[in-house]
Design goal:
The chain is of the alpha+beta class. It is built from three helices and eleven strands; from the N terminus they run αββββββαββββαβ.
Amino acid sequence: MNKKIYTTILITIILVSGCSLGSSEETKTVSNISTYESDSYAIEYPPDWEIIAREKMTSDIPSTVDIAFRNNVKNEIYTANTNITIHSIDRSISSKDFAIASTNKIKKDLTTYFEDSSSETQVSKTDKKINAFEVYFTGRKTANEPLIVFHQIYVVDYKTVYTITASYKQNEDESVVKNLDSMLKSFSLK
């Protein structure tokens, strides 16, 4: 596995909460849910959240980050967010194996790491389901930072890896956590 991919995922998780507002390729709003659609995937998000498109991200955000969504209620310590990274890989690997390799690397890069749970799941792709792997963990980069909860779904579609990451403060409002979990569960491939 490429060490750069794992480092990119970790950097993305940490940095996205500081990005500026951007626009999406296409959004549709129905009731209290909006849908962001790219050429290869779709994800639902709360319509009052900020969309941070690739072209609006600062240079410290890795180029593999395709899109990010940030809670409209800002917090000076950490603002809840979800981001999607897309990586090309040399060979096909299972979503579970990629997730395990990624989280092993993340464990080494964080000063504190607690895996809360992990399990196999599935993601919709057009009219079928493909295997994915879901991980919940809590961690921090330095001892002075607050503990952050991470919820990730790893999806390998042949030689493309999608990592959907939600992150939030450990004591985040329950409605925000529910929104983040719903976003990850709504992710689908085209």
